[in-house]
Amino acid sequence: xxxxxxxxxxxxxxxxxxxxxxxxxxxxxxxxxxxxxxxxxxxxxxxxxxxxxxxxxxxxxxxxxxxxxxxxxxxxxxxxxxxxxxxxxxxxxxxxxxxxxxxxxxxxxxxxxxxxxxxxxxxxxxxxxxxxxxxxxxxxxxxxxxxxxxxxxxxxxxxxxxxxxxxxxxxxxxxxxxxxxxxxxxxxxxxxxxxxxxxxxxxxxxxxxxxxxxxxxxxxxxxxxxxxxxxxxxxxxxxxxxxxxxxxxxxxxxxxxxxxxxxxxxxxxxxxxxxxxxxxxxxxxxxxxxxxxxxxxxxxxxxxxxxxxxxxxxxxxxxxxxxxxxxxxx
Amino acid sequence: xxxxxxxxxxxxxxxxxxxxxxxxxxxxxxxxxxxxxxxxxxxxxxxxxxxxxxxxxxxxxxxxxxxxxxxxxxxxxxxxxxxxxxxxxxxxxxxxxxxxxxxxxxxxxxxxxxxxxxxxxxxxxxxxxxxxxxxxxxxxxxxxxxxxxxxxxxxxxxxxxxxxxxxxxxxxxxxxxxxxxxxxxxxxxxxxxxxxxxxxxxxxxxxxxxxxxxxxxxxxxxxxxxxxxxxxxxxxxxxxxxxxxxxxxxxxxxxxxxxxxxxxxxxxxxxxxxxxxxxxxxxxxxxxxx
Amino acid sequence: xxxxxxxxxxxxxxxxxxxxxxxxxxxxxxxxxxxxxxxxxxxxxxxxxxxxxxxxxxxxxxxxxxxxxxxxxxxxxxxxxxxxxxxxxxxxxxxxxxxxxxxxxxxxxxxxxxxxxxxxxxxxxxxxxxxxxxxxxxxxxxxxxxxxxxxxxxxxxxxxxxxxxxxxxxxxxxxxxxxxxxxxxxxxxxxxxxxxxxxxxxxxxxxxxxxxxxxxxxxxxxxxxxxxxxxxxxxxxxxxxxxxxxxxxxxxxxxxxxxxxxxxxxxxxxxxxxxxxxxxxxxxxxxxxxxxxxxxxxxxxxxxxxxxxxxxxxxxxxxxxxxxxxxxxxxxxxxxxxxxxxxxxxxxxxxxxxxxxxxxxxxxxxxxxxxxxxxxxxxxxxxxxxxxxxxxxxxxxxxxxxxxxxxxxxxxxxxxxxxxxxxxxxxxxxxxxxxxxxxxxxxxxxxxxxxxxxxxxxxxxxxxxxxxxxxxxxxxxxxxxxxxxxxxxxxxxxxxxxxxxxxxxxxxxxxxxxxxxxxxxxxxxxxxxxxxxxxxxxxxxxxxxxxxxxxxxxxxxxxxxxxxxxxxxxxxxxxxxxx
Lengths: 330, 290, 579
Known about the structure:
The structure holds 3 protein chains of 3 kinds.
Chain A: H1 2-30, H2 33-37, H3 48-57, H4 66-78, H5 95-130, H6 135-149, H7 152-170, H8 189-226, H9 229-236, H10 241-279, H11 284-293, H12 297-325
Helix pairs in contact in A: 1-4, 1-12, 5-6, 5-8, 5-10, 6-8, 7-8, 8-10, 9-10, 10-11, 10-12, 11-12
Chain B: H1 7-17, H2 19-41, H3 73-109, H4 113-132, H5 135-149, H6 154-160, H7 164-179, H8 181-189, H9 193-229, H10 241-246, H11 257-281
Helix pairs in contact in B: 1-11, 2-3, 2-11, 3-4, 3-6, 3-7, 3-9, 3-11, 4-7, 7-9, 8-9, 9-11
Chain C: E1 4-16, E2 21-33, E3 37-41, H1 48-56, E4 64-71, E5 74-75, H2 81-87, E6 92-95, H3 99-102, H4 109-120, H5 126-139, H6 145-148, H7 158-170, E7 176-180, H8 188-205, E8 208-213, H9 216-220, E9 225-230, E10 233-239, H10 240-245, H11 250-258, H12 273-286, E11 296-311, E12 317-333, E13 337-341, H13 348-357, E14 363-368, E15 371-372, H14 378-384, E16 388-391, H15 405-415, H16 420-433, H17 450-462, E17 468-472, H18 480-497, E18 500-505, H19 508-511, E19 517-522, E20 525-531, H20 532-537, H21 542-550, H22 556-562, H23 569-572, H24 574-578
């Protein structure tokens, strides 16, 4: 088991490294941060030497060969330094610091959404499969069908619009935007309750999308399990339908689900990007959007590294779950 | 024994027996007709500004209303529908081609000795790499540069990050088929591998390719919408359903509900056809021993 | 009638299908008394398995059932699922066909057995139930049961899994045991052991037993009474002697005649269809030149194929090797049939694949018509593909379901560059040769029965006038009555066309009358090779003798004499007292 896990982890580390290197070369090759830092429309030309110094300090000098810049970046990576942000802001904030500030904001969204969504999806999919063609099954299937047919922004708009409607009608509603209220005293009960209330709508959105796709996968695997010989054996032993399914079927159905878990986190990241944008949360997603639009190479690669690590962790977790559930892969 | 129905006839019968297939097909055809003809007869263009009427609801002149920037929502939605349809269908076809290529080749060579295993390993790792890379971020990275050239670049861009799961499934199916005796028999007759794949493997996984392509259309439309919504998709002078949605205003629901409804109708109709097709091609998905 | 355990009265089961209703069982009635063994025999699709699932109350939800089933005086159709559940596994238990898929892969075998005890006796503690499962495993002959109980199904061999299934079935000392094709998925030697075990268990418990099978040979030694089913209806029912010695119905006689007899030398005496056909062939071959003077078609010397056993997904490390084929040599002369016999895992399929590759083997040489396969050029190899062809085991899988028969038959000829006219001509000739008609050419494989498909498979192998046909278990996926017809056709082809056969089989009784020589294979080695008659009359190797002894004999008196008690009743008896 330990050996199996360590080999998998090693594979994923290599994959994460390859992915972020690839991202660096792409970003550095495609983007022109110097055009943002010194827009061509600047009134006074900047002295060449100053400009070079500026660019070198940020490791974005287009006159330095791409692979030299990549080597610089790699050197930084080894020391735990991801470079500094560029863009229109000349403050040179370390990317590392920017990520650290933003990760907690994004992560709570991603984690809550994935965990609640997964559990809910597995439960609903299971019910759908066992009670096939019942009213519940039809309702769940139709619901997930509808959610999967809408892009995340539209789901967010629907949730926000409903909240707005309730607010107009009753005068009470959830906070429409921002994760925290800067006017309230930090640490006070009001501030905390505001934060919790602000989390409700984004979590609903991410949970709904995760649960919708999860319940579909779960229904398919659970139906496979329902047709299996070992479940018939379990019934022949004297277990009732529900007992046979929970004692023998559930664990077997969860084995393939473990693999989907790794992708679910990636999907949750994409979902959180829309959530952050439309609820005005200053998380990684917004940072990603602004980094790419401002041609911030270091910032972009930092985000890629973050998502790669996130995927890596969830994939490792998925493998671990699979190892626990299935003695055959141990 | 009565002569059994041919496979195609049987599938057609099963497909058209489902009401979902009819609803989906009718809606889809209707949307295509609207997308083609509505912009021809409608008096406003997608970029015509009527600032005097900005942020007004539906009227007889502006069927869906006008947004903050004075742009007509109906005109934009119809133009967006055209673009989304082209991108959706194009991407789905290209994605399936990529997936079939990678999936069948990897599945076929995986059983062919040491070199085959190495080639298969390479393709599998390539697939996994594409699965772990943050596709959305990379698309955001590529898109602006490509959009300057042509909006059609959206098709290969979306395809590049969409083929992996299908390729995985097709590889597994090919591996199963390669072990079947009729493919083995063809090998022992000396049939060339490429011919073998084209003649024996692809026809036998065709049903899955068709289902996947159908559902791929809606997936591509959703992907394009998301990308355009955050400003990294279709750019001026083109407009897609995502860019129309971008101009939403929570205090004026008509700014986003019409394009959202059209989008939902489009995706749902395609998915309904896909599901009906799946049921028609794979009737065993119904059976359960409990 | 107090000792009647099960009464089935006018049972009919049907399933809705795409176009019409499928009647799986129609008007079936039978009863089983305490301590009695009833065998329900029929070919695939005869409804025998469905009838037993009906008794268990485990039919799929879409089945519609009529009639009446009484188990110990209780009408099963009036009980709800909760009441039925208290009977299943306790009063009536079942042994399924495929022990690999019938055990839950993720639980220890011991736990799966103790579960059945605990379901019906919740008062028994988990520790006691675990101890009981070890006892049960011991009694069914699993070595080192306390360690084995902690293992998972994938760590068991096929035979051991089926033993564990039997342990599970007898755990609560049921009144009725239903065994649905319990040995079909197993090797012959294992098959005999499992049948003996099942019989001993039944006798020890005094339980009524229903054995469902397609194999008359298995029935003879096991059943007291036999019920023959065909196409969802009962054909005939009677005592085992009656059915075997004095069958009334023609279908029963066909079934019996189709079972190859290993206990009789003279093919004609066996009354089997295949047997009498072979007798004719034997005469023809006498007129040929003596073996030594005929040219060698295939010569294999010191062939070796070793698979490395590796571990690890990323960094593969060799941890051992499997000697699948371990230095074997044999030759086949023109017009000769060599049977390669062995159980699963003996390396016979690997040998066949090595020959069919037409490449340089890992070690040793393969010569076809005197040409070494390692020296072939690409073009030589392509031409040689027409000389050596293959017929596969599974007629369902051997033909591409999307191609009409004519295209399937033309495929090898296209590779060899035949002209269009010649191909069309040959398609007609081939179809008639294998006993089909030219009108069949435009049909698709799905429109044929298993036996007809296998004929198409043979026709394809004949397409380019081969010198040698490799037959990989060509009849083992077919029903017995169909099997005989295909064997007859093969024998006929051999005598008419003078083509050589390499006949791979796990079943000695099948090859007895078709082969000239037999090679017995075990663990990658040839343990014995010789003339068919010699191997049967005087097997020199212990393994050959074991194989011969394991073949079921379709004769109740002989089969009973053969039987041995294998259950360890002492290990079993502990439970009654501890309860």
